[in-house]
Amino acid sequence: MAMTGAVDLGGIKERAEAQRAQAQRAQAQRAQAQPDGAQPVPGTPPPAAPPAAPGASVIDVTEETFESEVLDRSMQQLVVVDLWAEWCGPCKQLSPVLERLAAESGGRWVLAKVDVDASPRIAQAFRVQSIPMVVAIVQGQPVTAFNGVRSEAEITSWIDEIFAQVGNALPAAPAGAAPEPEQSDPRMIAAEEKLNDGDFDGALAAYRAVAEAEPENVEAASAARNLEFILRAQAHDPAIVETASPRDVDAQLAAADVLLLSQQPEAAFDRIIDVVRVTNGDERTRARTRLLELFELFDPAEDFVVAARRKLASALY
């Protein structure tokens, strides 16, 4: 799946540069203010951790080290980013396979592990909808990605396909060289044109077609999810928020759509969680499924998403 231009990593780089500059200023101020042998002033930030050794096959990456460990390194070496979390069961299946393959690659590529809970801005930059998510970075740009658990053979084939496209050598671009123009996906352009022309059903069908043809196409899947939600929510009578019966599952799901469309995610999620609490069987499953679908419209690190997931777990168990 081509991802060039689909995500913006510049914000992470700028944040890392700002934090590094701040740490350097603080360190210089402490050096001036303290005599030799003095203890650090309590509350002052420690200097940023140094980059991992060039020969390391697996690297833990944070927002502060993202620029050096991922963007800069990818100018010379393929970097595979593993977006994971401690609570994610599938991540614990996939990560050891990736780590072993990276170690066995002999430096051909490096694995950069990102805890999405500890580094939410990186997850947001990659528009993470679900984890595990694995992204290949070449020359500072994401070029392909996949979600979910893959077998060792599938991952090996995926890596080989990347090298077949970009070559085994990844030299840094010559100084002052103009970047090559990005190649836009004509299918995505056609879908966007339909959207701009007001053909919402046609745009939705176009985005769905791309997502079905390329299950790993995060941009198309995200566009389809968002447009599908908007069309469904706009079809509801806003009065449903006040008139929905607590045990009327369809009405409560419609009310949640209306609330979410009006930028009230906490209230929308609470509506569905209340339905989960008072129902069982197929109705409870339907409510839970809808809530999980709505979660996918947001960055998983958003506070209101994290809080709603906890509430859902409590309601279920």
UniProtKB/TrEMBL annotation:
Where is coiled-coil annotated?
none
Residue ranges constituting the Thioredoxin domain according to the UniProt record: 47-164
Low complexity bias locations = 19-41
Q: Where is this region: Disordered?
A: 1-55
Could you tell me where the Pro residues compositional bias lies?
A: 42-53
For this protein, the record's Pfam families field holds: Thioredoxin, TPR_20
Q: Which domain of life is it from?
A: Bacteria
Q: Which UniProt keywords apply?
A: Disulfide bond, Electron transport, Redox-active center, Transport
Keyword Electron transport applies: yes
What PANTHER family does the database record attribute to this sequence? GEO12009P1
Q: Give a short account of what the protein does.
A: Participates in various redox reactions through the reversible oxidation of its active center dithiol to a disulfide and catalyzes dithiol-disulfide exchange reactions.
Tell me its family.
Answer: Belongs to the thioredoxin family.
Question: What is the protein's name according to its record?
Answer: Tetratricopeptide repeat protein
Task: State the organism named in the record.
Answer: Gordonia westfalica
